[in-house]
Structure formats: C-alpha cells, structure tokens
C-alpha cells in the first residue's frame, strides 16, 4: 500500500475539503476526514511511506554502525573494549527520547532530522549486543584455527566473525524497525516530527488528538 500510494489512495494526502471537516466515515471517505477536511485513509496510506521509510533506513544505519562498533570492541578486548563500552554506558544512562529530542531541535524538523536523530541513538543497543556475541565467537575453535594459519585481525573479524552474527543481526533488525516507527510517531505526536502538510502515523495521531 505504501509503495502504490499514488495509485490506490482515493485522494491526494493534502487535498482539503472545507465542506467535509471532521466528517465521519462514509462511502466517500472510508476513514472520515480531519480538521481540514483531508481524507484520513489517503493520509494514512501516504503516512505509511514516511513511517516505514524512517523505520527501515534508521534501523539499517544503526545495524551497520552498531555492528562495526561492537565487533571491534569485542574482538580487540582489553583497554580498547573498556574505553569503547564506557562510551556506550554513558549513552545508555541518558534517556533515548531526551537525546532524540535534543538532536532533532538542533538539526531541525523534517525527514532528515528525524532520520539522523534516530540513527545516532539506535546503534547503542546494537553495539552492546554484538559485542557480547563477538566475545563468544572469538573463542571458537575455527577462530583459533584462523589465527594459527596467520590470518590478520581484520580478516578474522570481517571474514569469520561477522558472518557468524547473521542470526543475531536479523532478529535485532526486526525489533529495531517497529521501535524506530514508534520513536518517529512519538516525535510527531509531541510536535517535533514532520512539518505540515506532510503525513506520518505520528502526525495523524497528533492531528486526531488535537481535533478531539
């Protein structure tokens, strides 16, 4: 539905009808209209594009950053691991929503502001998870064998350890996507999301609350 929005949405997402403000669901507007007479079904379909795009893109970026960061920390160990994970601990000590709001205020509202804010925060949990898994994998016999035949650290990390993280990363990604969508909705609900007339699921929730 999100991909085919221009073809399946009954109306443009920003088309206003002053004669149908806050209209209940009927044959012309299956989900009713908002306070500006815009069709809610159309805005929900177009809003899915924004919410899903932010969810997918920020989750992928967080996965890449967190995997590299946690992988290096876990494999190097020692003072490198200690220093890198203390940074993660500091970021964990600050509420995610507070950091996201601060970054959004500095960068600005809109898709890219939300994208950067969520990407810069979401990798922390991924890094801690990957680091723990790398600590386990680096003691496996096949890693010892790779060291024994002279493989370098970077080759071992990228050719032997990272492929072993596949299952963990897939599960992590499936959890990150809905979490990112919820974060975007929260920002939009408190007024730090997309600027009008653009639509997302969080914007719709905020508009509905305001209308009520």
Observed structural traits:
70% helix, mainly alpha, 0% strand, 212 residues
Task: Report on the architecture of this protein.
The protein is an all-alpha fold and 212 residues long. The chain has nine helices and no strands. The protein has helices at residues 5-8, 40-76, 78-93, 96-107, 111-137, 141-148, 153-161, 166-189, 201-211. The chain is elongated. The model has no long low-confidence stretch (mean pLDDT 87).
**Major sheet: size, sense and barrel closure?**
none
Low-confidence stretches: none
Kindly report the average pLDDT value: 87
What form results from the Cα inertia axes?
Answer: elongated
Give the N-to-C terminal Cα separation: 27 Å
Supply Rg.
Answer: 22 Å
Instruction: Report the helical percentage.
Output: 55-70%
- The secondary-structure class comes to mainly alpha
Strand content: under 5%
Task: Write down the secondary-structure element order.
Answer: HHHHHHHHH
The number of helical elements comes to 9
The total strand number stands at 0
Short structural description:
This protein has 212 residues and is mainly α. Helices cover 70% and strands 0% of the residues.
């Amino acid at each position: 539905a999100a991909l085919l929005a221009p073809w399946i949405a009954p109306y443009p997402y920003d088309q206003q009808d002053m004669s149908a403000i806050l209209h209940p669901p009927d044959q012309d507007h299956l989900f009713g209209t908002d306070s500006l007479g815009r069709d809610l079904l159309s805005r929900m379909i177009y809003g899915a594009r924004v919410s899903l795009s932010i969810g997918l893109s920020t989750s992928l970026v967080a996965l890449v950053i967190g995997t590299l960061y946690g992988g290096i920390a876990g494999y190097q160990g020692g003072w490198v691991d200690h220093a890198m994970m203390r940074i993660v601990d500091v970021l964990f000590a600050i509420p995610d929503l507070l950091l996201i709001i601060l970054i959004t205020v500095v960068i600005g509202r809109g898709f890219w502001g939300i994208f950067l804010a969520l990407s810069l925060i979401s990798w922390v949990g991924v890094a801690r998870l990957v680091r723990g898994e790398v600590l386990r994998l680096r003691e496996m016999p096949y890693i010892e064998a790779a060291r024994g035949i002279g493989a370098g650290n970077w080759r071992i990390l990228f050719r032997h350890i990272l492929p072993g993280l596949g299952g963990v990363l897939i599960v992590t990604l499936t959890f990150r996507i809905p979490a990112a969508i919820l974060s975007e909705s929260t920002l939009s609900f408190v007024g730090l999301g997309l600027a009008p007339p653009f639509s997302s699921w969080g914007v719709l929730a905020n508009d509905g609350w305001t209308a009520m």
